[in-house]
């Protein structure tokens, strides 16, 4: 029997290759994901290893516990540095002074996107810098900038750049040098950097205090890192800590491991989706191949092969094919992963060199998954094949399709089960978060399978509807009829495409709904028409002079203007947002809040107001006392709760008197809300307010839409990122459609021969196959969009209590998905259509 | 031209629908070469029903394929009506088959996705033209298919399917209908129906039919039987009866060794 299997496989090379493609792709994705993850980690680890190269011990400030606010930094004191330098075991010391700053580009706007802008002292040895043009800064008014900064700011050598930090006002600096990093890099992970003299860097980072972000120490000859660590202990004191270079690198690696493991999960997710799609492809291809061999199988049965033998024969074929294809896929995946490492490392991480790591798990997992998936996928077709009655060998007739009632009922039940899983999971029916998440995720997967089973039933009406589009052409009509003649096959092929489209549609729908919900709430709760604020992505929160508030209030047509200060403070040992305003009541009512308990007419010294959620979190009521330490505060203050605010949805936490803003991380207001009077012209008011803040480049005047689009820009990025998923799923789906079409064309050779014999042109044949392809692809996309909207809606409904109240449909994206699916159909049709149009008429219609 | 001449043999009296002159066709090369047609010249009269017979491998199917523009010839010419088809490109050949030729196959070859009526109208649909409704109605009535028009091929018996195929072949009033073993897959009763229809379409509609068959009783429905052996025409029988066909075949089978010796 095995011999017959092998010979049979050899005789059907074309079909074999098509089946293998799906397996190869799935395995390759898994292997590539694992290799890529390991390689990125290795590359990043190398990068960490280069930090403070040559140093033995790093001394850095002790970070206070429970401090999430990283805007205000502590430093290593100058006395500590002096004590270290005086130690006999120390050969060399270098200092680092660094933190985020804002710098204004040529256009007067804050430079930078999501990657930060950093200030550093020239002399810092945490990374290797290479001066490219000019020289190092020698005076406090001089600065050298990274090549990336030149690119993003539009400024260059000899220009003047304005920069400021939390501690300093806008200050002009002359650019005296442009530098890059070891390996010819322009930037570190996309960030921009400005290098100052050490004293100027201290002014920017620490407000002029003589302290340092870190001190790197090299041991004298004959002293090892641990001995140095011990020797430095008395010098370091309690406010700082010394760690070996190795421990420092390990810390960095642990931090980056969090990021790289997220990347790894993301990639592995891609791989698993590809495998999931492959299951459909493999099962479908095997079904079709076996359908084409029914006669042969019946003949085997007729001459005495048992059902078990037929099943084993098909599974043996699947096993051989799966093993071979998975091995090829693993090889390709490892190669692709290695190749992609440098692309990702150079493109996103700006690393100079890349390290390729190939863990054993990569090829092993790829082969195991590929082989397992192939054999499992072949199981159903194998069992079906074994049921072939021997008499089929003698028959030659077109068989009617098997009824699809059973599969439809099953599909309905499975879909409902999956939906139930999602709903239960999202409603947190189960004990733990993990269990709920798993229930929801498994539920989503089950819904896929359920809908995939339902596709056979859906295909007739939907394809008929789609077919109306092609009815003008007879070839098109035939193509449409072909697409619906085998509902199971069309369904499974379309399902492969459906999965990807479902995923992106569901995610896009959810994100759009979140955005829409935010926008709606924003519009209904916020009365102010204009916002004076800086970009969300600024490294240091944008601020403006408080004096400008009175000028804004004096503008004709301004009903009210409220300034807002923000801080992240420690209140009763928890991290809380604290707001302050010169018009505290306005600040609350502007956001739709109402005073539910107590009074907050004027918050005085030692008085604090809380939003109801924050009060509930801390378990405090009116008259209770809390202690708060602000970002820059050196000591804790006692406050009495005087008011609780309800319905304030846009602002979190607490309110205090503006007198405390001196201890906030920015002592100046971060935002102003401007309420334009009824009947006044918003455009005129905007222009006047713009004039008033013209000398304050870090802030601008924004209307609702502009402000919202800033706040929601992250969602836009997320939506773009998930489109990558679609691209991946589309590639797999193209192969699926090609598979089905090629096999269908092979199956219908005689029919095609007849059509060509009685006068169908090659062009018409091509059109017929293309329409079939596009119809299947569009069907898959429609299913995916439908399922995606459904999933998106279920999740949105489940999240409605958390504030995601609006359901929004991303229409533009959906139109794009439909267009993409037409493209998939057209691409997939090329090879099968050419094959169909070149069918050998004589061979097709002869029987001898 | 004197009209009172004695009746000439039918072949020369009428116009010929299909003319083959000195056809050669070989497959393969060298040792493995098989010559399927050797210098075959034959004319098929318009409005006549001609059967081509011969043992397996005699070249009868190759002859039909060459005549119908489905296969190419090595040497010689084929004309359908006034059109020389030898050397036409695929596009022109396709158009010729569509407009001038009808086909009936052994396996019926209906499109399973279309109804009987749609299958009948298929050639016109492919051409993008409208079939003559009166003509179609007449064929359908003759073939007794009126109550089967909305059925799919899977819902029809073999005989019904072949009748639909016949209607399809005649739907465009082609110059000639080629039938390749049209009764090969049918029972005796259905075979009779199909053959009687082919006969009627010649007698009543003046259709030209060329049929390849190995069944003497089928051949007996024809006006003329052309016998092929080893790629050559060995007999040409007019107004055959089944017995005459069987006799000819017997005699011709006896001659096969002679033909072998002649080589």
From TrEMBL, chain A:
GO annotation, cellular component aspect: plasma membrane
Keyword hit for Transmembrane helix: yes
Positions of the ABC3 transporter permease C-terminal domain: 270-390, 725-840
Ranges for domain MacB-like periplasmic core: 17-234, 490-691
Keyword line: Cell membrane, Membrane, Transmembrane, Transmembrane helix
Gene Ontology molecular function terms on file: transmembrane transporter activity
Membrane topology, record value: Multi-pass membrane protein
InterPro entries documented for this protein: ABC3_permease_C, MacB_PCD, Macrolide_Exporter_MacB
Keyword Cell membrane tagged: yes
Record-annotated membrane-spanning stretches: 262-294, 314-340, 360-383, 404-425, 437-470, 491-511, 717-746, 774-795, 807-831
Family, as annotated: Belongs to the ABC-4 integral membrane protein family.
Protein name, entry field: Putative ABC transport system permease protein
Organism: Glycomyces artemisiae
From TrEMBL, chain B:
Repeat as UniProt keyword: no
Pfam family, one: ABC_tran
MF GO annotations: ATP binding; ATP hydrolysis activity; transmembrane transporter activity
Domain ABC transporter: 18-255
PROSITE patterns linked to this entry: ABC_TRANSPORTER_2
GO cellular component, one term: plasma membrane
Keywords of this entry: ATP-binding, Nucleotide-binding, Transport
PANTHER family in the record: ABC TRANSPORTER RELATED, IMPORT ATP-BINDING PROTEIN
Stated name of the protein: Putative ABC transport system ATP-binding protein
Organism of origin: Glycomyces artemisiae
């Amino acid at each position: 029997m095995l011999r017959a299997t092998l010979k049979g496989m050899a005789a059907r090379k074309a079909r074999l290759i098509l089946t293998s493609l799906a397996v190869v792709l799935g395995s390759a994705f898994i292997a590539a994901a694992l290799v890529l993850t390991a390689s990125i980690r290795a590359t990043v680890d190398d990068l960490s290893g280069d930090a403070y190269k040559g140093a033995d011990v790093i001394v850095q400030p002790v970070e206070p516990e429970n401090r999430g606010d990283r805007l205000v930094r502590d430093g290593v004191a100058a006395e500590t540095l002096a004590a270290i330098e005086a130690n006999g075991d120390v050969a060399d010391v270098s200092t680092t002074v660094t933190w985020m700053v804002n710098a204004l580009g040529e256009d007067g706007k804050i430079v930078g996107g999501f990657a930060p802008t950093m200030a550093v002292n020239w002399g810092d040895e945490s990374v290797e810098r290479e001066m490219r043009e000019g020289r190092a800064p020698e005076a406090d008014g001089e600065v050298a900038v990274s090549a990336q900064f030149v690119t993003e700011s539009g400024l260059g050598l000899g220009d003047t750049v304005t920069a400021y930090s939390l501690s300093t006002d806008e200050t002009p600096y002359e650019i005296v040098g442009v530098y890059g990093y070891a390996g010819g890099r322009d930037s570190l992970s996309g960030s921009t950097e400005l290098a100052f003299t050490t004293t100027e860097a201290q002014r920017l980072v620490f407000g002029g205090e003589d302290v340092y972000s870190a001190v790197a120490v090299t041991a004298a000859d004959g002293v090892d890192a641990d001995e140095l660590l011990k020797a430095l202990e008395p010098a370091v004191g309690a406010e700082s800590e010394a760690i070996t270079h190795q421990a420092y690198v390990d810390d960095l690696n642990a931090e980056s491991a969090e990021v790289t493991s997220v990347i790894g999960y993301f990639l592995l997710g891609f791989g698993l989706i590809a495998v999931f799609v492959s299951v459909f492809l493999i099962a479908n291809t095997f079904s079709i191949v076996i359908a084409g061999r029914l006669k042969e199988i019946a003949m085997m049965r007729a001459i005495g092969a048992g059902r078990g033998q037929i099943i084993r024969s098909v599974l043996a074929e699947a096993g051989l094919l799966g093993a071979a294809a998975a091995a090829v896929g693993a090889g390709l995946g490892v190669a692709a992963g290695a190749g992609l490492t440098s692309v990702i490392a150079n493109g996103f991480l700006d690393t100079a060199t890349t390290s390729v790591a190939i863990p054993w798990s990569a090829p092993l997992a790829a082969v195991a998954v590929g082989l397992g998936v192939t054999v499992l996928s072949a199981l159903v077709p194998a069992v079906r094949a074994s049921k072939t009655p021997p008499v089929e060998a003698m028959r030659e007739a077109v068989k009617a399709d098997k009824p699809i009632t059973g599969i439809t009922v099953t599909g309905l039940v499975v879909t409902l089960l999956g939906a139930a899983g999602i709903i239960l999971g999202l409603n947190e029916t189960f004990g733990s978060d993990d269990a709920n998440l798993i229930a929801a995720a498994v539920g989503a997967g089950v819904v896929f399978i359920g809908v995939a089973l339902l596709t056979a039933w859906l295909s007739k009406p939907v394809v008929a509807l789609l077919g109306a589009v092609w009815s003008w052409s007879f070839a098109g009509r035939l193509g449409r009829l072909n697409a619906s003649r085998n509902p199971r096959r069309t369904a499974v092929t379309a399902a492969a495409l459906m999965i990807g489209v479902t995923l992106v549609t569901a995610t896009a729908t959810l994100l759009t709904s979140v955005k829409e919900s935010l926008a709606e709430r924003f519009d209904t709760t916020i009365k102010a028409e204009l916002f004076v604020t800086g970009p969300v992505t600024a490294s240091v929160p944008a601020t403006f002079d408080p004096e400008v508030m009175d000028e804004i209030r004096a503008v004709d047509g301004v009903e009210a203007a409220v300034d807002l200060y923000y801080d992240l403070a420690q209140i009763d040992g928890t991290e809380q947002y604290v707001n302050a305003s010169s018009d505290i009541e306005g600040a609350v009512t502007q956001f739709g809040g109402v005073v539910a308990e107590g009074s907050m007419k004027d918050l005085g010294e030692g008085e604090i107001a809380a939003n109801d959620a924050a009060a509930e979190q801390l378990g405090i009521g009116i008259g209770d006392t809390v202690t708060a330490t602000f970002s820059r505060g050196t000591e804790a203050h006692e406050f009495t709760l005087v008011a609780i605010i309800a319905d304030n949805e846009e602002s979190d936490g607490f309110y205090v008197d503006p007198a405390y803003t001196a201890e906030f991380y920015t002592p100046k207001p971060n935002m102003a809300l401007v309420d334009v009077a009824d009947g006044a012209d918003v455009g005129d008011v905007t222009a006047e307010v713009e004039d008033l803040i013209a000398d304050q480049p870090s802030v601008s005047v924004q209307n609702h839409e502009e402000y919202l689009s800033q706040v929601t820009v992250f969602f836009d990025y997320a939506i773009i990122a998930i489109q990558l998923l679609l691209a991946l799923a589309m590639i797999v789906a193209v192969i699926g459609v090609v598979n089905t079409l090629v096999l269908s064309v092979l199956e219908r050779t005689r029919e095609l021969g007849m059509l060509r014999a009685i006068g169908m042109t090659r062009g018409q044949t091509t059109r017929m196959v293309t329409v079939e392809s596009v119809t299947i692809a569009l069907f898959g996309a429609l299913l995916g969009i439908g399922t995606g909207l459904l999933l998106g809606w279920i999740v949105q409904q489940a999240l409605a209590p958390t504030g995601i109240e609006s359901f929004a449909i991303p229409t533009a994206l959906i139109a794009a998905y439909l267009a993409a699916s037409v493209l998939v159909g057209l691409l997939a049709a090329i090879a099968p259509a050419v094959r169909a149009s070149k069918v050998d008429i004589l061979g097709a219609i002869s029987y001898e | 031209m004197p009209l009172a001449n004695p009746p000439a043999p039918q072949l020369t009296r009428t116009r010929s629908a299909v003319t083959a002159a000195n056809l050669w066709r070989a497959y393969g090369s060298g040792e493995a070469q098989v010559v399927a047609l050797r210098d075959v010249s034959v004319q098929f009269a318009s409005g006549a029903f001609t059967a081509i017979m011969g043992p397996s491998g005699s070249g009868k199917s190759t002859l039909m394929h060459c005549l119908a523009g489905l296969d190419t010839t090595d040497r010689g010419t084929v004309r359908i009506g006034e059109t020389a088809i030898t050397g036409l490109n695929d596009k022109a050949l396709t158009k010729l088959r569509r407009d001038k030729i009808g086909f009936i196959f052994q396996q019926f070859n209906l499109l399973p996705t279309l109804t009987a009526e749609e299958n009948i109208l298929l050639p016109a649909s492919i051409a993008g033209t409208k079939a003559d409704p009166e003509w179609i109605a007449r064929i359908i009535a003759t073939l007794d298919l009126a109550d089967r028009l909305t059925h799919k091929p899977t819902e029809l018996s073999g005989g019904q399917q072949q009748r639909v195929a016949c209607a399809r072949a005649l739907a465009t009033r082609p110059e000639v209908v080629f039938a390749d073993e049209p009764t090969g897959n049918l029972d005796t009763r259905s075979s009779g129906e199909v053959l009687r229809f082919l006969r009627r379409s010649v007698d009543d509609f003046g259709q030209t039919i060329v049929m390849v068959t190995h069944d003497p009783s089928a051949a007996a429905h024809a006006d003329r039987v052309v016998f092929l052996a080893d790629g050559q025409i060995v007999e040409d029988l007019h107004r055959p009866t089944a017995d005459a066909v069987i006799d000819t075949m017997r005699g011709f089978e006896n001659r096969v060794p002679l033909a072998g010796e002649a080589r």
